[in-house]
Design a protein that fits this description.
6 helices
């Protein structure tokens, strides 16, 4: 099975405050997100981490060693802090890529894009970066685009989701 998540920011206390995450401490956040991940993801599953995985290489390695599944990193702006030792825990890395998930074309990029491969042919765009920030102009624009799916941890319950789950979350959000 294929899963998606962005903006985990393991070990990052600053993001806990900025995104108003509901955890008592960084350790509580890390432990909860690891537990939720492993309840959902099996060892043979694939997880696309759509950027901003951890605050540094030490935290990244410690966390990656505990997480189920094959992990593929789509580079985010905070991933520049990861060194080669941490990067080797990912099956591969990319800045942007388009994959097949079942019958669907899915373009993955940390940043929300207005146009992407197969956007006019029913494809989906899965991204992160904007967290749950209502002040970001992208939040306002993306909210009306049905095939743009924010997989940021803050908006998907802090656990990886399948494409179908992301689509359902988007449909629920658009029905309000």
């Amino acid at each position: 099975m294929i899963f998606y998540i962005a903006d985990n920011h393991f070990g990052d206390e600053r993001v806990m405050r900025l995104a108003k995450r509901p955890f008592r401490s960084v350790n509580d956040m890390n432990d909860t997100m690891i537990s939720l991940w492993n309840k959902k993801v099996g060892v043979a599953d694939v997880v696309y981490v759509v950027g901003d995985f951890a605050i540094d290489s030490q935290v990244a390695i410690k966390t990656l060693e505990q997480l189920n599944g094959q992990k593929i990193l789509i580079w985010g702006n905070h991933d520049v802090y990861l060194d080669e030792q941490a990067i080797q825990y990912f099956e591969s890395t990319s800045t942007i890529c388009t994959i097949k998930d079942g019958a669907y074309s899915v373009t993955l990029c940390h940043y929300p894009l207005l146009s992407y491969e197969n956007s006019v042919c029913g494809g989906y765009h899965v991204f992160g970066h904007i967290h749950n920030n209502p002040q970001d102009i992208a939040t306002k624009i993306i909210s009306s685009l049905p095939r743009h799916l924010n997989c940021g941890a803050d908006v998907i319950g802090f656990m990886p989701k399948t494409l179908q789950e992301l689509i359902c979350l988007k449909e629920q959000a658009m029905s309000f």
